[in-house]
Amino acid sequence: MKPSQKTIKHILETLDRLYPWDGRCFLDYKTPWQLLFATILSAQCTDDRVNLVTADLYKKYPSLESFASADLSDLERMVHSTGFFRAKARNLQNAAKMLLNEHNGNMPSDIDALTSLPGVGRKTANVVRSHIFDIPSIVVDTHVIRVSGRLGITIHKDPVKIEFDLMDKLPKSYWIRYNQQVITHGRKVCIARGPRCAECELYKYCVSTDKGIDKGD
After folding, report:
1. 123 catalytic per annotation
2. Can you give the pTM of this predicted structure?
3. Would you give the distance in Å from CA 99 to the centre of its chain?
4. Is 169 a catalytic residue?
5. What whole-number distance in Å separates Cα of residue 182 and Cα of residue 178?
């Protein structure tokens, strides 16, 4: 049974209390394109690992121009530990070229323009729209999929359907903060395997079949 708006309101209030919104991003960056590239690298990789990689990557390649003219094999070597390194290195270089050639080196805010960049899907585009342009957007990653499903806020598995479902059910003022709060909750408490139900203050709203497996009953 899907939660009522009253229940969703209580869930959001609990998230606000547990994880006060501070506007921070889990990925390190100084420029819009650095956030874009870090988010591309974060696919199937932890944010901590990406931050370690980009610390050196952005020192060696400090501009879009340097990425566009970089030796591809060197980019592959530097991003190797993030996984799918050949595709990611190629996407970074081609995205740099496209930003320079089609956008004068500026980051577009339009969702269609962003998703036309190599390696950029709606998740990556919405990270940029949220943190660079402060445009309310829903970022659907594995934590958002899992926690939102366990709370019954969405029944979908497809990220795009989940994005639009959450946009329909959550107040627009919560879209950006919900992303970060649920990601934090998913990492600390509502873990994929062995959720810490005994510690979860959202436990009473959970509809998952995994509910209670960590309660020691």
Report:
1. yes
2. 0.90
3. 21
4. no
5. 6
